[in-house]
Amino acid sequence: MGEYNNPEYVGVSEANSPRVNDFKKVSVLPLVFLIFYEVSGGPFGVEESVQAAGPLLALIGFLVFPFIWSVPEALITAEMGTMFPVNGGYVVWVSSALGPYWGFQQGWVKWLSGVIDNALYPVLFLDYLKSAIPALGGGVPRTAAVLALTLLLTYLNYRGLTIVGWVAILLGIFSFIPFVVMGLVAIPKFKPSRWLVVSLHNVDWNLYLNTLFWNLNYWDSISTLAGEVKNPKKTLPKALFYALILVVVGYFFPLLFGTGAVPLDRESWTDGYFSDIAKIVGGVWLRWWIQGAAAMSNMGMFVAEMNSDSFQLLGMAERGMLPECFGKRSRYGTPVIGILFSASGVLLLSWLSFQEIVAAENFLYCVGMILEFIAFIRLRMKYPAASRPYKIPIGTVGAVLLCTPPTLLIGVVLALSQLKVVVVSLIAIVIGLVMQPCLKYVERKRWIKFSISFDLPDLQGANQESVNSLTD
User: What is the pTM of this model?
Assistant: First the structure.
């Protein structure tokens, strides 16, 4: 352990700590499904896009929106994640470009956004089951179910990232199969005219954009555990590419099947409606299968998001941004304190409704993405010759243009936010602005131990030659 000396991180080498090498690294296939679950997990949760805007705009949204948002974010994650193949991800990116203060702010808003996002999955899980088990619709049974589910999945995270990766593969396959079956049995019921229904005068743009945004973001989350990936400089870009295809296909075709097979009733398109469609086109057996797939999918999204959130806290602790205890690993290689903090946040926020959770996490996520885009462009300008194993084939102007459409979209999402969401989110941001100086004060007083891990790649010394050559 060393003293925090505000290093600049440039061209991080892929050195590995002996401690981390004791644990098995994640390979391409598990990584694809971890990304899939951090971003998507299947079509569960897209129903409200039809309620908000009708079938045509919903289908167009899930084809066009990925090019505006998902592709730029995935490309930036591939470049920055291979440039800095260490735990902490975007926290390290922003720290490198803007300094540790803003790196901490990035970590705070993105962690909080991730925890809020994770609070949604027990809600979705129970929404899909309440039609079969009405007692889960509210009261003590629902609260007990949220608590039991959170504890079970938290324990799975504790047991190790490799286990979570292979569980994600199995859950992904199980979640996809019933939609393939539903599409096949729905073919005789398809009416193409149903896909073309649109009413621009009756669109809830706030709900529509928030639903699209929530279902197609978080590509950068995988960067927080890049230090746990086998050969991340090659594995990460491949996994992001395959996951992007999987996500778009997993959204578009179920929406196509569902909107084409049943008469349109926009008010019915709420959480869990795919199970009702399955019953209409295939019977009760298919409904139960879809509900089971939804339950498994939400489990996959929960464990993937918690992994990302907890390893982010570990990466921050290893850089002296958080107390040293956050950097402690279990015998399975998992960050114990980070997992406990993330699980506690989920339990505290699980009482919120679906729309409230989506709107709140989208607002905070947007703030973090603005910092990421600034860091990406600044590092391109400040260190153009730094090592980038995967580099987007564009110059500085191209980098600015790449970030322009998603930045404009962020502006629209923020502008459409409800006053309650804005106030709560701004309070959370202010807490982060104050928290970092308070933690530095605590460190100076030595009330709590902070340290920099010597097991990390030498982010300053090993690259000093590269830094000098770039800044002379």
Answer: 0.85
